Amino acid sequence: MQNEPVSTPSLIAPARADGRQASQLRPITFQNHIAPYAAGSTLISWGNTRVICGVTIEENVPRWMKEQGVTGGWITAEYSMLPYSTLQRKQRDISKGKLDGRSSEIQRLIGRSIRAAIDLEKIGTRTICVDCDVLQADGGTRTAAITGARVALALAVKRLISSGKLAADPMLSGVAAVSVGMVAGRALLDLCYTEDVAAAVDLNLVMNARGEFIEIQGTGEESTFTENELAELLALGKAGVRELLAAQAAAIQQG
């Protein structure tokens, strides 16, 4: 009798719902100057997540800076999800009379992240306002907002320099953000919505081009995670950030 063929388990990890490998980002593009009245703007399309990031300039600084004698300028951020950005209509914050906790937390994260990208002393007594509006949400809206906001900021700074309003370039470093998570026991880069809701561990990573961490937001969703899993997630995230920084640089170069 001939020997029966022996089946062996596949060594290739199964593809994700959208066909990506575990360490693969969703496709990402930047459409610059999407808002003509902004000093700098871009539409970041990241998979099926789309966010308009716009920058406007005010020739003053917040009162608290004057009262405390703080020199230089300031950057503030606002974040919102448009009602039609999700499958079910999302009520506008203004109709509720207050900003919801999630939006407040995300816009503070965007502000902290973008302030790390610029020398506030060099922008003069100005306030840079960064507005991030989600047109379509499929996971990673905060990371897309940060990554797109840095492009919009660089375009606005270019305009300030070309108009003679800034004598020196205040930009310090590229800044980008990405999500990683543990889903069904696998470490995955750049979670889409269906992966995000199924993740046992959800982590958002913000880094600069020097390889330094700006913020790490990691949570075990009704689960715990090990030091080895954290190291695996960070390694995935760092590789993803490097790709995002390259995409940012190309978008800024195009102007």
Key terms:
single chain, 255 residues, alpha+beta, 6 helices, 32% helix
Please, could you describe this protein's structure?
With 255 residues, the protein is an alpha+beta fold. The protein has one domain (28-254): Ribosomal Protein S5, domain 2. The protein is built from six helices and nine strands; from the N terminus they run βββαβααβαββαββα. The strands form two sheets. A five-stranded mixed sheet has the order 1-2-3-5-4. Strands 7-6-8-9 form a four-stranded antiparallel sheet, with helices on both faces. Strand 2 (40-46) and strand 3 form a beta hairpin. Helix 3 (101-115) packs across helix 4 (141-162) and helix 4 packs parallel to helix 6 (227-254). The longest helix is centred in the C-terminal third of the chain and has 28 residues, at 227-254. The N and C termini lie far apart (71 Å). The model is unreliable at 4-10 (pLDDT under 50).
In terms of quaternary structure, the protein is single chain
Number of strands: 9
How are the strands of the largest sheet arranged?
Answer: 1-2-3-5-4
Per the principal axes of the C-alpha atoms, what is the gross shape? globular
Briefly note the CATH topology name: Ribosomal Protein S5, domain 2
Q: Tally the helices: what do you get?
A: 6
